[in-house]
Design brief:
Length: about 140
């Protein structure tokens, strides 16, 4: 279910999850836990995000971040060199208005790339604080 919702239009996903939450809050929480959305990059380990950044098309990232929260923009740029972060910010400003549909599409492509990198074993999409170790 989570995979299906990740592939759907974000507004439809929100509507479905709201409906599920009204009927079964526990099921809603379980599905949301299994989903990975663009804002979840805030929780990602820096090493994983750096690996992803190395594979991303910068134009795609520019469009995706254009419509994201200031915290998420800062999170991505904090992992870049000063010059790369400046260039990204300049590109976002020069881009002008962008359709929400284009921003969401770019964000979905980046999430898909992150999932592909996870499938290849190159990164983990688990948040940094929840990892357990054994000796």
């Amino acid at each position: 279910m989570a995979e299906l919702l990740n592939r759907m239009d974000p507004s439809a996903t929100t509507e479905i999850l709201t409906s599920i939450a009204a009927d079964d809050p526990n099921l809603d929480q379980s599905i949301r836990y299994l989903m990975f959305v663009f804002e979840d990059f805030l929780k990602l380990r820096p090493e994983a995000l750096r690996t992803l950044l190395g594979r991303l098309d910068k134009k795609l990232l520019t469009v995706a971040l254009k419509g994201s929260s200031p915290a998420l923009k800062k999170h991505f740029t904090s992992l870049m060199s000063t010059r790369a972060a400046e260039m990204l910010n300049e590109d976002m400003q020069a881009l002008g208005p962008v359709r929400i549909k284009d921003v969401e599409e770019a964000q979905q492509k980046i999430v898909a790339m992150a999932k592909q990198l996870q499938a290849e074993g190159l990164i983990s999409l688990q948040s940094g604080g929840s990892e357990e170790f054994v000796e």
